[in-house]
Amino acid sequence: MAPRYAPSLWSRLPPLAIILQIIFIVLFAFFVEIEDLSKTDEEEFLNSYAVFQDVHVIVFLGFGFLATFLVRYGFSSVGFSMLIAAMAVQWATLLNGFLLTSRSSWTIRIKMKSLVDAEFCACSALVAMGAVHGKTNPVQLLLMSLVEVTGFVINQWLIHSFFKVSKCFTLPSTMSRAMSLHVFGALFGVMTSWVLYRPENELKHEKEKFSSKSGLFAMLGTLFLWMFWPSFNLALVMNKIIAYGTYLSLAVSVVTAMAVSVLSSPRGKINLVHVQGSILAGAVAIGAAMTTVPWMDMTIGFCASLFSVLGFRYLKGHVLIAFECHDTCGVLNVHAIPGILGWFAYVVIWLSRANDTTDAIRFAVHNICILLMTVSMSLALGTITGILLKWNLWRPQQDRKCFDDQTFWEFPHLAVRK
């Protein structure tokens, strides 16, 4: 007989989701317009749409299937990822329009780039979601995504507003956005997970494991991310040369992740879960590093993958024991550490090429302030969000019902007859 799970979601998910959706529809009706396509070059539109499609695949297909490694949490991994991304895209379109692109008027004119920027915000929310994967209900995830997207966009607005740079510096919309997308989302999620910590998760949860079938589906999501990430970085950084470096870094990450996983294993075998995240670490780092030299791209990919595998093997368990922080998908190792590594590489490479000491000092201080502000905001908002999600109003599932689809999804063949 199937276990008796929590009551239905009638009183929680439908009211929140429908009310939010109606609010978004009303806001779009009053403030949003589509750009005049008659003034847009057809070839330019088709190129933009091709990039949008690649980013679309990463956000809705790649991240959803990547998280299906848990043996009893496949429906929720794909379904909740799609729900969160769909809601985050709408909210991000409004916030980006009001704060970043339409400051002088209340009219938001969206174009293909607006949708791509909104999906970057949704991607950051999905990164944060990975830290609390399996331990929250969809209502909590919706609230968490709205706060995360709000914080991410405000962080970008603050960078644009308060970190004005001279012509010799790279604009904040390049490196800072690539770095903060991963670092902000990962640290936000980790802090939320820390506040929501369950003592029962100190030891490995009985359902927090993977099977050959769930691992195969997760590997499918990893392959989609691996194949389309050069386009993702291209759209994120708006620099054509980044696509070449991302591909080279990804290739090196695969080799390094496989080798280090074997070397760090007591039995000398490859850990699938570790490899799935670590083969993407190089692309995360390159998005922030923005190098133009092939061997540098490959070196950064090697270091990012190395640190990622070692983080999965050793850091994740120590963070759980020492700080009581349970990071389900290891976003700290896949996104935060490689993102900071890429930022560090970017700063070091630029300083090594600087001819003027004063400009070098200003550049270093400028980028350190961007990183510190991003980290501070993500930690603070993550803590506040965790406190908000702990309220019994959202009716979180019991400890024994974590990492299980039956808490939220219909399984007719397992229904309990009364």
TrEMBL record:
<feature type="transmembrane region" description="Helical">
    <location>
        <begin position="295"/>
        <end position="315"/>
    </location>
</feature>
<feature type="transmembrane region" description="Helical">
    <location>
        <begin position="179"/>
        <end position="198"/>
    </location>
</feature>
<dbReference type="InterPro" id="IPR024041">
    <property type="entry name" value="NH4_transpt_AmtB-like_dom"/>
</dbReference>
<feature type="transmembrane region" description="Helical">
    <location>
        <begin position="327"/>
        <end position="351"/>
    </location>
</feature>
<protein>
    <recommendedName>
        <fullName>Ammonium transporter AmtB-like domain-containing protein</fullName>
    </recommendedName>
</protein>
<feature type="transmembrane region" description="Helical">
    <location>
        <begin position="55"/>
        <end position="75"/>
    </location>
</feature>
<feature type="transmembrane region" description="Helical">
    <location>
        <begin position="210"/>
        <end position="229"/>
    </location>
</feature>
<comment type="similarity">
    <text>Belongs to the ammonium transporter (TC 2.A.49) family. Rh subfamily.</text>
</comment>
<feature type="transmembrane region" description="Helical">
    <location>
        <begin position="241"/>
        <end position="263"/>
    </location>
</feature>
<feature type="transmembrane region" description="Helical">
    <location>
        <begin position="270"/>
        <end position="289"/>
    </location>
</feature>
<feature type="transmembrane region" description="Helical">
    <location>
        <begin position="13"/>
        <end position="34"/>
    </location>
</feature>
<keyword id="KW-1133">Transmembrane helix</keyword>
<dbReference type="Pfam" id="PF00909">
    <property type="entry name" value="Ammonium_transp"/>
</dbReference>
<feature type="domain" description="Ammonium transporter AmtB-like">
    <location>
        <begin position="23"/>
        <end position="390"/>
    </location>
</feature>
<feature type="transmembrane region" description="Helical">
    <location>
        <begin position="139"/>
        <end position="159"/>
    </location>
</feature>
<keyword id="KW-0472">Membrane</keyword>
<dbReference type="GO" id="GO:0008519">
    <property type="term" value="F:ammonium channel activity"/>
</dbReference>
<keyword id="KW-0812">Transmembrane</keyword>
<feature type="transmembrane region" description="Helical">
    <location>
        <begin position="81"/>
        <end position="101"/>
    </location>
</feature>
<dbReference type="InterPro" id="IPR002229">
    <property type="entry name" value="RhesusRHD"/>
</dbReference>
<dbReference type="GO" id="GO:0097272">
    <property type="term" value="P:ammonium homeostasis"/>
</dbReference>
<comment type="function">
    <text>Functions as an ammonia transporter. May play a role in the elimination of ammonia in the gill.</text>
</comment>
<dbReference type="InterPro" id="IPR029020">
    <property type="entry name" value="Ammonium/urea_transptr"/>
</dbReference>
<feature type="transmembrane region" description="Helical">
    <location>
        <begin position="363"/>
        <end position="391"/>
    </location>
</feature>
<dbReference type="GO" id="GO:0005886">
    <property type="term" value="C:plasma membrane"/>
</dbReference>
